[in-house]
Amino acid sequence: MTSYRVRIAEDAADREACFAVRKQVFVVEQQVPEDVEYDAYDASALHVLAEGDQGPLGTGRLLYGPGVLHKTGDADTGSLGRLAVTSAARGLGVGAALVRAIEEAARERGLTAVDLHAQTQALGFYERLGYEAYGPEFQDAGIEHRAMRRALP
């Protein structure tokens, strides 16, 4: 089993590692247009990075605070997004570790819930982590999604 650690991205090099994982997973594998994958929220988001001996393995981000349009409209709700794990690291628990790190960062910032837009093929993953789907399916970047939410204990 590959060992890895998950931490908050601290500098420009860490953010570039996060973006490299997102490019591989979303742009290359899922064919999401690059101009859709990267957005204005990247500059102010809290990025989380999973890395192992071989380099970056996964990433995700948390949006919160003034200027963020929360999916629920609640100022005490953060938005988890851009969760991506490299193909080599899938099945090792990296995705779950990233979600838990983002939830912990949300708690530390006084947030009481996290919402997200999950690709429908990933609904079971998020349900196992305590998220509940709500609302109808919708398309984002040509991929079916559902909104999900979890109150933070």
TrEMBL record:
UniProt name for this protein: Acetyltransferase
PANTHER family according to UniProt: AMINOALKYLPHOSPHONATE N-ACETYLTRANSFERASE-RELATED-RELATED (PTHR43877)
Species annotation: Streptomyces violascens
SUPFAM superfamilies: Acyl-CoA N-acyltransferases (Nat) (SSF55729)
InterPro entries, per the entry: Acyl_CoA_acyltransferase, Bact_Acetyltransf, GNAT_dom
Keyword Cell membrane annotated: no
Organism superkingdom: Bacteria
Keyword annotations: Acyltransferase, Transferase
